[in-house]
Amino acid sequence: MTNVPIEGILLPDEKHNHESPSNWKEYFSFSTDHKVIGIQYLVTSFFFFLVGGIFAMVMRGELMTPESDLVDRTVYNGMFTMHGTVMLFLWTFPSLVGFANYLVPLMIGARDMAFPRLNAVAFWMVPVVGILMMGSFFVPGGPAQAGWWSYPPVSLQNPTGNLINGQVIWLLAVAISGVSSIMGAVNFVTTIVKMRAPGMGFFKMPLFVWTVFSAQIIQLFGLPALTAGAVMLLLDLTAGTAFFDPAKGGNPVMFEHYFWFYSHPAVYVIILPIFGIFSEIFPVYSRKPLFGYKVVAVSSILIAIVSGIVWVHHMYVSGTPGWMRLIFMLTTMFVSVPTGIKVFAWVATIWGGKLRLTTPMLFALGALIMFVFAGITGIMLSSVPVDVHVNNTYFVVGHFHYVLYGTVTMGLYAAIYHWFPKMTGRMYSESWGKIHFWLAFIGTNLNFLPMHPLGLQGMLRRVASYAPEYTFWNIIASLGGFLLGMSTLPFIFNMVISWMQGEKAPANPWRAIGLEWLVSSPPPVENFEEIPIIISEPYGYGKSEPLTANLSE
Amino acid sequence: MKIQKILNILTLLTGAIAITVISLWIGQQAYSWLPPQAAAESLLIDDLISFLVTLGSFIFLGVTSTLMYSVIFHRAVKDDFTDGPPIEGNITLEVVWTAIPILLVFWIAGYSYQVYEQMGIQGPSELVHLHNPLAMQSAHAEPNDLPANALAEPVEKIDVLAKQWAWVFHYPEKDITSTELHLPSDRRIRLALKSQDVLHGFYIPAFRLKQDIIPNHAIDFEFTPIRAGKYRLTDSQYSGTYFATMQANVVVESPENYQQWLAQAATQKPSVAKNQAASEYAQTSHQSVQTGWVTVPPAAPPLVNSPG
User: Name one Pfam family in it (chain A) (predicted).
Assistant: First the structure.
């Protein structure tokens, strides 16, 4: 094990040479340092976030008017397919893996991940996925146009007649992304189980580590189903098999089962680490311990378990028998119990604290409020009769964008600001951060709230044109979308300028409790000169007890 | 000290009452967010939506106002860098707020189950007949809030064919085809849904009803229109390039007018119906950005007695 404390290996003066990368080149070359890989993930995924955002702008531009008049219908269909795919597989997943990569070893007192080279290989598959996806715009027929669900038989229709087409490339890219995620999951689970510092029992782990652990366990049981479904679809498309092709006796509904068996739990893979980020941020800026730490920790595992039995709620109207609709209604609603526990715990943590509304705190608070909203519409969607009406309408689109933008992306921003000084050794500009927050918060609500009335009125998702009575809310949503696009500008500006010439950051600018704040900013290559020995629970705000027995605080 | 406690309880009570009143009001507003109630099922579903909106508003307002109270009144003073009180948990509180969501879940699920059972919208016929342990009843044994004659036979049977990208309705009794769905009001309607090519979805927002149509599956779907008027049927399951154009008119009329329409349509010779997908495919498109990406050609426009 790498975690045997070896004393006197580095003298304080030598330490300077071992600090994390000081020039850009190291971030763009093969590295096995979990911190470099973490930042590689974050920068790469943010690039694709902008790409996916541009697709969204084109769609919102098209939806400014009822007619299909800005782009071809084929282009529009390609746009929404690629928007969904890019945002999920190239933005939310990899950016959260980036954070987990950067933070988990630091938070558990390890010098690196369990398998550093596997870690690097898993990362380098992400640009490959990205290049494939973007390359598909240039094959005849354009990129995949069957939506990110790629339900057959639409996904099996290949009007170009070519073997190499957008849909085939899409399936390959998704499969590679799945392999990369499985590699990551094995690495994270091993690291968390095996490499915790002495004294760090499971109930002394920070909650971010708990949530990463739960999320990665979902990856291990869920991804094989998606990968199997993708491979079978690929065979149907290229080799003439008939797993899902009804024209040859296959069953397209089976694909829906394979797909959602993973793709609903995937939502929890994304949102669990965000819950972890909330649990890290609220105590620091409220100066209070996390309320109900143990229950909050266990609720992550509960969410992971329940997530395995909810997928059919995406298929209530897919010819699903009544008894199955009702069982999955109950299991889906049950997710609100462990989630509710977390929400109440955060509210209780903030209550009576000494709040500081820094940029990360603002983002976390805004994200929490939007998450509560998303949770409530989620309960509505789980109710079979309500879902029968709003399924596949903009109500669903609004709901999941409150989850994926309102909560996940805003939570990611909170995390980026919170750990920016640690990662770069520089402070960011608070005033630019606050401008970013308000633009993003207003933009998100303007963009996604109008989708709820649209959905209740019956406007369908994935349409390039719509009935004139839906125009008003669509214009509001589009304007909100453009504002949201603009809100990234102050962020990019802030990050680039601050990283180049921000004020030097101390080791612990927020006076936070946690192992990552005990090392310098940015941390040295091997994280800890001496492996810490953990003696107390995390989040001991107001208790003035030391976290470790050997490192100075 | 005691006065402070009483004041706190009063504040809490006032807050709770205010939130309750506002939530009830929002719940009533929910009806106005929905299309007209044109089917018996929509009455049930709208009540359920209103109930969930009321409950949801209460939870949302409760959580956000607590948070906002903290944000306004529990801010750190400028130079105060001390910590807040180290409160780590409270078993009673944690048990209570675990129990409340569990009870709510059972309440919501129970109510939803009741509504679903009353709707009796059916599903894929073979599945309904083979395994149906919960004995979903169709609305024949149905409650008083449905119009009395909705329960009476005969049931109106109509075949629905979905294809890329058109709806075709066939009335087997008079052997009539149409691209406009005519329905008698206050009669139980039974549709036999079929797809010629890919997955489609049968969705009439004014009826609050939706059902996917799966190739090679016969799917029965039942409901009762109750309000005369003209509505829209849309395809709710993404079906390829011209997905958005796959719409049809739904005309709900009195049984007499409906019979008249049937009789009148029976005299018409079949003609080619108008079809947006086909005409868009034939024309060069007007969009400013053109790629020339090939698409699946639309099925031939249907031949119908009544093009609507």
Answer: COX1
